[in-house]
Design goal:
- Helix 1 crosses helix 2 (about 35-45), helix 3 (about 50-60) runs antiparallel to helix 9 and helix 9 packs across helix 12.
- By secondary structure, the chain is mainly alpha-helical.
- The chain has one domain.
- The chain has 13 helices and no strands.
Length: about 260
């Protein structure tokens, strides 16, 4: 799903609280917020581990070896000294994570490493990964075979952003007993107006077309807000949010 967040929402009032990434960067050379920064970094890693796994697989590793490498990589960057050696001036967690992963795989290939599977600490649940893996089928077979590892990383990153925003929107609707409305309208969040059949939605929901249009408009606005918030957690400067969204939209389009 292409988020299609444009300048339309850029003029709306927004508040940028301390985000996970800005918290991590501010604490990189300080001990005062060390635990908060570590918790924020771990949360970002847990959200964005799938792009890492896809990248490692694309580099020729078997599924089992890619799982091991992914686990090892995240355990590595969660070490207290990681940020002290990382180029935090890059400003975007996506960029820093990919660069760190590339360097990690180069070093891992330079030495022989032997350890039994399951012998280390698991950072993510691979049962959960296998259960959620079908979400990657949104990429075309041609793109899956032809895109380089870096492009696949960006694509999976973009889909993760979208999935996070949709998950939060679904949870909000569930909390308001509006799950039926969410499931009916969420497939149309990024469609052009002339692509939406308001008559069909009206019949399915049992409400007037005017009500459907109003609810879809409200849901689209909330979705865009949540999407911006997810992206804001991965960039240092709030001014970079819109550029990052454009980049991720392009990454999604490249996989069509």
């Amino acid at each position: 799903m292409n988020p299609q967040v444009s300048e339309e929402g850029a003029g709306q009032p927004r508040q940028f609280a301390t985000t996970r990434w800005s918290l991590i960067l501010s604490a990189a050379n300080s001990q005062s917020e060390e635990q908060k920064a570590r918790d924020a970094l771990e949360e970002l890693c847990r959200i964005y581990w799938r792009p890492v796994f896809v990248f490692v697989c694309r580099r020729g590793y078997s599924t089992e070896d890619a799982q091991d490498r992914t686990q090892d990589f995240f355990l590595k960057i969660l070490e207290p000294t990681w940020l002290q050696h990382a180029d935090v001036n890059r400003g975007r967690f996506r960029t820093l994570l990919l660069t760190s992963l590339q360097n990690f795989l180069i070093k891992a290939a330079e030495k022989t490493r032997t350890r039994k599977r399951g012998g280390g600490v698991q950072f993510v649940s691979w049962d959960d990964w296998m259960a959620e893996a079908p979400s990657q089928l949104s990429i075309s077979a041609h793109a899956l075979d032809s895109l380089p590892a870096e492009r696949l990383f960006d694509f999976r990153w973009a889909t993760t952003v979208v999935e996070q925003a949709l998950r939060r929107l679904r949870e909000e609707c569930e909390g308001k007993d509006r799950l039926r409305l969410f499931y009916a309208l969420s497939p149309h969040l990024t469609e052009e107006r002339d692509e939406v059949s308001y008559a069909k939605l009206s019949a399915a929901l049992g409400v007037a077309e005017t009500a459907v249009k109003k609810q879809l408009h409200i849901m689209r606005q909330r979705y865009r807000s949540l999407l911006r918030d997810e992206v804001a957690h991965t960039v240092e400067n709030p001014a970079d949010v819109q550029d990052e969204i454009r980049y991720l939209c392009a990454a999604l389009a490249a996989a069509d």
